[in-house]
């Protein structure tokens, strides 16, 4: 039994590139029918890295910012776990690049490496950190979890479902965001729905339709297991009424809408109290469908979405801001949706239960729940919202025309796995304090620099290794 109390997330920071493309503009450029990306996929905008940013620079930026803004001494970190599916090196972990921040403060005593399985790696990293703090090997210091990805797809139907971001989460005791660790349901199996077998390319191989079905099947299975565990331990039925918010891994918003509706269908089949008489009537014609038939039924999809709409607006919509604006951030996607909830609702979240659904193709999935309370400054929900400053970060982005976006994608294809090049070092669009890639040398070693921070607020104009 863990003696540590209220283990969970103490602090969060998010970073996404200041460069993006409007989905409406991309839709027209790609020759897709009007509304396909915006209404059909439910996306507004997509963030992407230019040639000066990557998962390592974004992680350096995010971790540095979290430590500075919450005034955490780097020596207080005892475990650092990274979740990512963006492969830059087949051996050297992203975590070791981040050690540059800690080494210069004399702290090399930090456990943890990278976790990889598509979009699930961040959840694996988070569980590792939480388990460490709850374990007998915990030494009293903080854990730090970093979820970082650049999601890019080849030209074609999957391209508008890209995105890029990093989230860092500080883990410790007496947290405002705690884990209800006993209530977890997982589903893991072998599937070829989305994978990256071509090590010469950053792009995945995707069976789009299969990935949607795998996601929904995993959701059903995790929800059933979550409910079973809850019911065994609490001695009463779990229904959607027992949770205040539902946060989903968000490749694109339409799948999130379908997922919430699918949970309602599950509650209907379980005869749970959350489904009222009029909803029962509308869903009754589908009660005899087999599992496979239910995934294929467009009528069921429509009926459940209609029945779930009013609850979706209350329990899911506040979680959708960043995923709709930035796109799929792979490992960071679920946590960016959770960050959206904190951004939108931080003053009213005390004692709320949040259900989280993490999905990584291939496939690994877990449903788990969090319990929130306001907490004490600096580890309070309102301060987390303040530090993340999501509205300002979204507002200050630069929209690129599609031609420029395509040109950047081509350059990144060329640069992926390459050596012996210097970047433009153009950091004019980056905020002060942002790290950027300057060079990959003939030994494939990567070098980064940090954009100068205004001297009047007393911070450095730093470089890492031989950057600018
Ligand atoms: N106006 C409004 N809606 C439209 C329009 C239009 N003009 N045109 C199409 N639509 C709708 C479609 O009806 C469909 O809606 P539906 O899902 O409710 O049926 C939606 O837009 C998408 O259209 P499709 O034709 O189904 O899209 P397509 O097959 O071309 O691509 C897909 C979508 C499969 C999601 C693709 O973008 C992809 O492969 N993405 C990557 C894989 C992915 O994200 N999978 C999710 C889980 S795995 C993971 O997280 C990576």
TrEMBL record:
Catalytic residues of the enzyme: 85, 119, 249
Alphabetized PROSITE patterns for the sequence: HMG_COA_SYNTHASE
Keyword Transferase applies: yes
GO terms classed as biological process: acetyl-CoA metabolic process; farnesyl diphosphate biosynthetic process, mevalonate pathway; sterol biosynthetic process
Pathway: Metabolic intermediate biosynthesis; (R)-mevalonate biosynthesis; (R)-mevalonate from acetyl-CoA: step 2/3
Ranges for domain Hydroxymethylglutaryl-coenzyme A synthase N-terminal: 5-176
A Pfam family annotated for this UniProt entry: HMG_CoA_synt_C
Binding site for CoA: 211, 254, 258
UniProt feature coiled coil, ranges: none
Entries under InterPro entries matching the protein: HMG_CoA_synt_AS, HMG_CoA_synt_C_dom, HMG_CoA_synth_N, HMG_CoA_synthase_euk, Thiolase-like
Record domain Hydroxymethylglutaryl-coenzyme A synthase C-terminal: where: 177-451
Keywords (A to Z) from UniProt: Lipid biosynthesis, Lipid metabolism, Steroid biosynthesis, Steroid metabolism, Sterol biosynthesis, Sterol metabolism, Transferase
Substrates-to-products reaction catalysed: acetoacetyl-CoA + acetyl-CoA + H2O = (3S)-3-hydroxy-3-methylglutaryl-CoA + CoA + H(+)
Enzyme Commission number(s) from the entry: 2.3.3.10
Keyword Membrane listed: no
GO molecular function: hydroxymethylglutaryl-CoA synthase activity
PANTHER family: 3-HYDROXY-3-METHYLGLUTARYL COENZYME A SYNTHASE, HYDROXYMETHYLGLUTARYL-COA SYNTHASE
Recorded family membership: Belongs to the thiolase-like superfamily. HMG-CoA synthase family.
Function: Catalyzes the condensation of acetyl-CoA with acetoacetyl-CoA to form HMG-CoA.
Identification of the protein by name: Hydroxymethylglutaryl-CoA synthase
Biological classification of the source: Eukaryota, Viridiplantae, Streptophyta, Embryophyta, Tracheophyta
